[in-house]
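in:
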């Protein structure tokens, strides 16, 4: 049985699972999260596989306190004021990633930003302090279903796809955190939540509220903010043509890099963004040719991202 009551023994077991690259669902004050060690690419890839998402969305990285953020992102005075006012609590801050950010690229879905939040829940706090690593955690529901506010919701939605579900009772807030973008000079709410624009404006001054398509960083209108390779991309390539860098999957003799030589989709997802960046070198190559990736499971999300990267650019 993978659903256990929140106690010291369960948290110790969850800590071991997360350090080992597994998935643990844990309660926060907003909704239950589906957590993985944010610094392990394959663990983060398993989140997308378990949720059955057909595309990569950037994930919120949970931290034990403000001091953990310095290693991940660039923080400014607005960050200091907002965290003093609202952390721990349901406010997620989107910041510019540091170049040496230890979190997997997959957490940011290839963006140059990273979303961070300090949850106000003793179980989430105990877990973060036990693992001593930031935890990537979207809401613990299958793609397209509603966010879970009880451990039983997680079990019903994800079942055995998660290694352990920690039952900490009902979530107090029951609505996902407010997501606030601090990467630009004017702060902007990307997702409304219980911390309102007026409350935020009282701390840092005027705030934009972004609605609809503009708020979704993976929507076509926001593609420019994603990392797009400078080199042209050719998909479903069975070999490299002269001047091309071949990005392999499975057995691909002569590949410049291989997403997963053992044809493991989770490994491929974990490598995708870093390998695209590594091969995007016009001094060495004219184009990037990518081996076929099966269009099943997390392969759907990999192919979605590759199609966007290969799409004609304006
Ligand atoms: O309350 C919550 O925020 C819950 C609990 C578990 O903490 N988590 C949650 O995560 O709702 P998720 O993955 O379901 O929603 C994350 C939201 C999405 O709207 C995503 O687009 C946005 O945060 N987001 C994450 N990283 C971002 C980034 N780098 N830039 C812009 N938006 C980002
Ligand atoms: Mg969600």
């Amino acid at each position: 049985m993978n659903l256990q009551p929140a106690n010291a023994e369960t948290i110790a077991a969850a800590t071991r699972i997360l350090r080992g690259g597994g998935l643990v669902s844990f309660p926060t004050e907003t909704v239950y999260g589906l957590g993985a060690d944010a610094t392990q690419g394959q663990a983060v890839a398993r989140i997308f596989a378990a949720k059955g998402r057909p595309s990569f969305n950037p994930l919120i990285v949970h931290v034990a306190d403000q001091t953990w953020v310095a290693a991940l992102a660039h923080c400014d005075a607005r960050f200091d004021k907002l965290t003093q006012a609202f952390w721990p609590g349901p406010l997620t801050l989107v910041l510019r990633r540091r170049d040496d950010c230890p979190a997997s690229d997959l957490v940011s879905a290839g963006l140059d930003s990273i979303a961070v939040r300090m949850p106000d829940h003793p179980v989430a706090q105990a877990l973060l302090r036990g693992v001593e690593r930031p935890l990537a955690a979207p809401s613990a529901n299958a793609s397209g279903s509603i966010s879970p506010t009880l451990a039983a919701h997680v079990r019903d939605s994800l079942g055995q796809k998660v290694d352990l579900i920690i039952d900490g009772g009902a979530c107090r807030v029951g609505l996902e955190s407010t997501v606030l973008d601090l990467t630009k000079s004017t702060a902007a709410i990307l997702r409304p939540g219980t911390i309102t624009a007026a409350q935020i404006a009282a701390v840092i001054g005027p705030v934009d509220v972004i609605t609809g398509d503009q708020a979704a960083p993976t929507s076509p209108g926001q593609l420019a903010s994603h990392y797009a390779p400078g080199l042209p991309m050719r998909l479903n390539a069975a070999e490299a043509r002269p001047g091309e860098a071949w990005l392999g999957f499975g057995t691909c003799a002569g590949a410049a890099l291989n997403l997963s030589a053992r044809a493991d989709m989770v490994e491929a997802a974990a490598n995708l963004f870093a390998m695209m960046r590594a091969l995007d070198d016009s001094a060495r190559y004219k184009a990037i040719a990518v081996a076929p990736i099966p269009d099943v499971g997390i392969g759907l999300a990999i192919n979605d991202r590759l199609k966007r990267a290969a799409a004609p650019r304006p």
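note: The two ends are 52 Å apart (CA to CA).
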